User: Fold these one by one.
Assistant:
Number 1:
Amino acid sequence: MARTLYYAPGACSLAAHIVLEESGLPFEGVELNLAAGDQRAPEYLAINERGRVPALVEDGWVLTECAAIMRHVARSVPEKGLWPTDLRRQAVADEWLGWLAVNHHVAYAHVRRPERYTADEEAYPEIRGKGADTYGDLCTMTEVRLSQGGWALGEQYSVVDPYLLLFWVWGRGTALKFDMAGRFPAWTAHARRMAERPAVRTVLAREGLPLPG
Ligand SMILES: N[C@@H](CCC(=O)N[C@@H](CS)C(=O)NCC(=O)O)C(=O)O
């Protein structure tokens, strides 16, 4: 099967990229430059009319939305255990994916893309500031959830963990510059454990991102 992942370095596609690498499925990665507007090029809009990454294409079939791609890839390789089999564990995995997608991602969008939330450029600093505060609050809640160590679902590594790494990377990044190790030590320990995984190291290197330190 021909399988292609459209991604941008350091974007939310990072999580799907890691899950695909963990899956062991063969795929081609196509890198988009969001700053240059590749996502709005007609060739890409023909794949994802929303003009966003990630997009996964399997033999011409297109799937978008990070969480959906991660679930689909994980379920395609049940032997890897990236998606739990136990019903309640599945529910908790869905709980994590939904919570992260509608809270962390949206708070971060206020920081990076204030133009989505107001037409008034003078309001950008306030929207960015409030988005950063909200992101910090969400990080604190994440820290509490991860304070018992292990992976998001306990002993079982799953698709939730790469998604968590994405939001840790964004917290560390230039837009937020959070002291992740100082403020969120349990989450940072999780990020460091992630960095021991060969698939994670491969993808971080491919996307030009430093390892969690
Ligand atoms: N709900 C989508 C959001 C996708 C999204 O917003 N992707 C961003 C990168 S993190 C993007 O492509 N931005 C390009 C733009 O806004 O022009 C998902 O979870 O996949």
Number 2:
Amino acid sequence: MKRLTVSIASVLLIFAVGAYAQGMQGMQGMQHNSKAQANAEPAKEVTVQGEIVDMGCYLSSDAHGMGHQSCAEKCLSNGMPMGLLTKDGTLYLLTVSHGNADPFNQAKQWAAEQVIVTGPEFRRNGMKAVEVDQVRQVNATEKPTKQG
Ligand SMILES: [Cu+2]
């Protein structure tokens, strides 16, 4: 009788440990899923056309375009965050590629100009960013055409 009680107890213990472990896994999975859904989408390579803006003047005063070019140049050279404003009004923060900072630094020289940026797009907490892997100015002949 004692032996039977002991074996029942061990079986129950094994079940309890198993259920606890599964419960923990389930909770961790839920946390990962909800976090991912709330904050981030996986990066995808994009090619986006838009105007190089300084984020401070654009966000505070809607300042952009050629009339604001000299201010934007000054702001960007002083370290103001740089953004890309598309024709449909989407604003991307531009970030530096760890592998090659040259395209980002090149973009800083093109304040208020139309450019085409290629790189991974990131979205988190409602913010959009493109890491500048490549940038080029839009040629006059390309200006009226589609945007990526
Ligand atoms: Cu400015």
Number 3:
Amino acid sequence: MKKLFAITLAAAILLSATACSAQQKTAEKTTEKKVEANAQEKDRETIYQVALLQSLTQGYYDGIIKVNELKKHGDIGIGTFEGVNGEMIVLDGKVYQALGDGSVKEAADDETVPFSNVTFFDKDGSVKMSDISDVNALKEKLDSMVEKNGRNLFCFVKMNGTFEKMNVRSEIKQEKPYKPLDKALATDQREFNYDNIKGTVVALYCPDYMDGLNTPGWHFHFVSDDRTKGGHVLDMNIKNATAEYDATPEFDMCLTDNDDFQKIELAKDVSSAIKKVETNEE
Ligand SMILES: [Zn+2]
């Protein structure tokens, strides 16, 4: 397995480098139980991010960690797979892979992940939503929830219901040499439209200051209740729903020492490419 690195950014401007897999640490024998319990509690309130949306956008699609490792860091999340082989939806501890042919399967434990955000979902509250006519209306409703709960925290949302309209996309697996994501999606994105579909939107909110590591605002993925359909949400419509949320104050990021990863200029502004791949808009 490749050597891994992690950066932990905690609320108290704590910056520390640790090995990616906390479980790899060999705990000393004395106070380990208490320390471990605290660590587990802390882990549940941490957004775990694999690489950067900026590295993915620039075409770094090599897997950095395996699915079974990712599961140790959360039971809800979004992301993608090696070669951008479909959209990832993590829900109730299961990792789903919404493929470019429109099908959904449970991802194999040894499938690898180039980009993802996960956390353990502990519901902090919920908001009733009604007449959400499109994805922008959903963002507005969720933004007002975030304003109340702390716009500078991360937040995961899970919203189950019957969607009158659900427009999702996935993509065909890429082969090397990888193209930047907007170029890959220009030819290999596939869209799917469903009516009156029961399912769950999994949403991540990143605060404004995350624009070098991810993208500020909301990112929505969807999986149907029967786990046969899903993808990255481009648009949707729902009459009534309850959005459950989990505000999260800590952030942990996992990087790789892979040579190709070191060659990426991560300070390059790819925000317009990110907007294009997230929303389909120029
Ligand atoms: Zn997505």
